[in-house]
Structures are given as C-alpha cells and as structure tokens.
Amino acid sequence: MTAGAPPPVLEAVDVGYGYSGPTPVQALDGLSLEVKDGEFVALLGPVGSGKTTLLRIFAGFLRPARGRVRCSGASVDGPGWQRGYVLQEEAVFPWMTVRGNLEFGLLAKGMGPDERRKVSDELLELIGLTAFADAHPKELSTGMSKMVEVARVLATDPSILLLDEPFGALDAHTRQRMQDALARLWAQRRKTVLFVTHDAEEALYLADRVVVLSPRPGRVKARFTVDLPRPRSFESRFSPEFLALKRQVWEATGLDAG
Amino acid sequence: MMTWTKARRAVIALVALTAVYVLAAEIGHGRLPERLWLGAHYVDNVKLLPTWRQLTEEGAFLIESNILVDSVVVSTRRVTLGLLLGSVAGILLGLLTGAASRLEALADPWVAFFRFTPALALLPLFVVWFGYGESSKILLIAANVAVVTFLGAHQGVRGVSRVYLDAAASLGAEGWLRFRKVVLPAAFPSIFSSLRVAAGLAWVTIVVAELVNAQMPSLGYLLALSGAYPRTPTMMIALATIGALVLVFDLLALLLYAWGTRWMERAA
Q: What interface predicted TM-score (ipTM) does this complex get?
C-alpha cells in the first residue's frame, strides 16, 4: 500500500474459520481480501467455499479463529447497523408492514416518527413499492421482499453493504430486474458493497471486481477486475469483453471441467 | 368468503348430528328397556335416549326454574376468571424463561412434573388450601391453563428463527426493543395456539371439578345430580350446554389466534 492512500473499508487478513461439531468443517483458511471505499466487490464461489462465513465474520456474528478482520480501520465487535447485512435467508419481518420493516433500524436508533416516515417514503419510492407501504410481506413476491430487505438496511445509511446471495432464490427474469434495481441503488448511494453469489454472470454484471473462492476450505483462488462501462445494460451481458471475462471466471471456478 | 363456507358447513354438521340423534330417539322410543339394574337396585322409568319432546319439556323446566341459566353463569364465570389468571401468569412466566436461558434449566423439571399431572390430582390439595368456594376451582383452572400457556410462550420465544434475531441485531436493535418488536410477535403463533388449547382444557377442568366437588348451581352439579336419579334428559341438556359453551370459547380463541397471526401466510 502506498503512503497516504486511504485504508480499505473492508479488510480480511489471513482469516481462518472452522465449525466444530460432529463433522468439523474448515470453512475458511488463510483468506485475505480488501474492499476499497465505494467499491462493489462480488465474492464468487461454489457451495461450501465459506462465502457466507466470511460475510458473517464481517457482519460481526462470527469471530475469525485465525487472522484479523477490520472495517473502516476498526476491528469488528459484534453486529451493528454500520454494516448493512442482508441475510441469505428470507429475513423480512412478516409481522410488520413494509413501512414498519423499512423504519425498524431507525426506530432502533431512536429516530422520531416524522423523520422515520420521511426516510421510509423515500426508500419506498426508490424500490417502487409505495403502493405496498402498509401491506404485510405476505402480499409481496419473493423479489419484492428481498428488495425490502435491501432497502431496510439502507435506511440507517450505513457506508457498507454485505449482501448474501440476495437474488439466489429468484427466477432468471426477476433476478435480472433485481440486479438492475440494485445497480441503480448503488449508483445513487455509492456504498461499499461485498456481494456474495454463486452466479458468475451476476457477479460480472454488478461488480467492479470479482473474487473467486476455492472449494472448502475457502481461500482466494483468482481475482478479476471488471472494466466494463456503467451503467451496464442487457446488451452489456453479450459484449465480447463480458463474454471473455465470463469464460475466464468460469475456468477459474473450475466449471470448464464440467 | 372462505370463512362463511366453513361456518355454514359447521352448522350443517351440527344440525345433522342433532337430526340423527332425534331420529334414533324416536325409533328407540317404546322399544328400549326402561327398567335398569344399577348395581344395587332396579330403577324404573329410565329413558336411555330421551326424545325431542322429552328434551324440550325438560329444557323448558330447567330454563323457567333458572337452574340452567344460573349454572351457565357460574361455570362460565369460573372458566373465564381461571383462563385470564392462568394465561397471564403462564404467558409472562414462559416469556421470561424463554428469553433468559439460565431460567430455562430451572423451569424445565417443574414443567415436566406438572405437564402430565392430571388436573384433578391437585383438587384435594386446592380444596384444603383454598376451601370449597370459588377460589379453589378458579385456581385449579388457572393452574392447568398456566402450564399449557407457559409451554406455548416458552417454546414460542425459544423457537424464534435465528434469521430474525440476526436481522434485528444487524439493524442495531437490542434488548427490550428487539424483544417487543421481533421476539414477541414471532412467538405469537405459538402463544395463541396454546391459548386455544387452554380454553378447551379450562372447560374439561371445571366440569370435572364441579362433578367431584358438586355445589349448586353449576353445570357439573347439574350432571352429578341428573346422574343420581338418573334423569337422562337433564344430562343430555347439560352435555349439550357444555358442548355449546366449549364451542363458543373455542371460536373466541380461534378469532384471537387469527388476530394475533393476521400477518401470517395461510393455506387457503
């Protein structure tokens, strides 16, 4: 690192983590990763490569057994709103309305009802769900619910977003629409994003950099810089540069071997 | 719309059940034996299946003499008070032990002990402690209701998905706010379904308690008295009344459950 350069917003150095239990599993081993301010990094890897483990370490739910993890230069002691974490599972609160979900983080911060409403109105418009403000999540589709979860962590305006396969459960069509929505959100709000996925195309479409993890135990296998112009569109997915990168990424993940 | 279809079917089923009984009683009228050996002596004029006419005559008498209404009022009052007392105590305790894992280990053996202890096993003790009056019966119901709702609340809190807790923690919610806005509503389905079980159990408890410790007026006493003669029309009317009250309480509990879980996705 050259002198004077700002420190990375997310930094993992030689991180190792294992799960004990009847079948002990070494999830991560000697993993190092940096995400710079405002950067969108996709973490790509097969099932069991420790992607979720790494994200949960950054989110503050797990402590690395080895190595160290820092966020904005400080160590991570437990979960907090400063890192907006969207879980892989569906975690929208079904007993709250859409607005209630969006305002929950602000409520935790002790913000008054009028201010909360202002923020939630803005977020509802951002994700195009103004008409569903007072609906319960059971009335939403899976894609809409996921968008509520993303918007919910945006409410408290964290500088970092940790997204764990947010669109993993969606059909291809919805997935693309959600990717575009996320790309727009990111362009507007310029967060530092660490995005976990097992879909190479999704990683390339969204990210500035793609980090490929090896199967268990997870460590960095390859890194790619995605130098495609933004905003990216449907056409970008078929540009020669995109396809060439996709091929390289697939080869790095070992998909070429079938 | 769905609810009306269901309600209509329930009414049809009840009417059909009554019709089958009335028909059977008519067929049996004059054909069934009316002189019975009841262990020690013969009893004459026993109606094994009272006919509709006998039932309505007896019903008219029980209503005009205020016996039935008084019994319903007394028994319903006991059940309602016992339910309120027991569920408040049970739910509060269950929430507490569910939220504090150190208390859980303390509560476990007590729950296991009382869970399968028959309600009536406690009755002699409760009579000694609280006398023959209202309090022993109300408290007996409360004790049974408390065990059921305690389990419902305890397991409800314990069973809250890690996903919701993690999401809440990530959004910066801790302590009381997290409990009130996340843990409690997530435990509602379990709490309210235990309340529904408790509503039924409260009636089982009171009728049996009133049978054993029979005092006028009460539905249990009405049953005990009609068994002593034996006077089957009174029995049938007492049974139908208890059944109707259980149905009403179950319906109320169901409405409460539906309200508490209105955000849940339901199979149609």
A: 0.91
